[in-house]
Write a structure and sequence with these properties.
The protein is α+β, with helices and mostly antiparallel strands. It contains two helices and six strands, in the order ααββββββ. It has a four-stranded mixed β-sheet. It has a two-stranded antiparallel sheet with strand order 1-2. A hairpin with a 4-residue loop joins β4 (about 85-90) and β5 (about 95-100). The relative contact order is 0.26.
Length: about 120
C-alpha cells in the first residue's frame, strides 16, 4: 500500500492484518501491528531512506535494509476512548494520535510483524 500511496485508517489496517493471517502470508498466521515501543525501536536518525510524496522528498529515518518506505505507520495501541490509535512518524521520530476510522488516512500505512520466540 505505501508504495502505491494508498493510505489506511486503523480499522482498515486491522482488516488487512486479519487477511494476511487468513491467507497465511509467507506461511504464517500470527501477523500483527507493532506496539509503540517496537515501532520506535526501528527509528534511527543516523540512517535515511528517501521518500518522495508527490513533488517533495523527505528523509525517513529507518535502516535501508527495510527497503522503500513511507513515513508513518500504525501501531497496535489505542487510546482509552477507543476512537484514536497511535501512529509513528519516521521523519520526525514522534508518535501521534489519529482517528481510527477517519476517511482521511493521514499518510499512515502498516509494517506487519510477528513475534519470534527464542528457543
Amino acid at each position: 500500500y505505501q508504495l502505491l500511496k494508498k493510505w489506511l485508517n486503523w480499522k482498515m489496517a486491522q482488516d488487512y492484518i486479519a487477511e494476511l493471517n487468513q491467507k497465511r502470508f509467507a506461511g504464517h498466521d500470527d501477523w500483527r501491528l507493532p506496539t509503540r515501543e517496537e515501532i520506535q525501536s526501528l527509528y534511527d536518525e543516523t540512517k535515511t531512506v528517501q521518500w518522495t510524496y508527490y513533488w517533495n522528498t523527505y528523509d525517513v529515518h529507518i535502516d535501508p535494509v527495510f527497503g522503500e518506505t513511507g513515513c508513518c505507520f500504525w501501531t497496535s495501541e489505542s487510546l482509552k476512548d477507543d476512537k484514536f490509535a497511535w501512529g509513528f512518524n519516521f521523519i520526525r521520530g514522534k508518535t501521534y494520535m489519529s482517528l481510527k476510522d477517519s476517511a482521511q488516512y493521514s499518510l499512515t500505512v502498516i509494517r506487519p510483524m510477528r513475534t519470534i520466540s527464542k528457543n
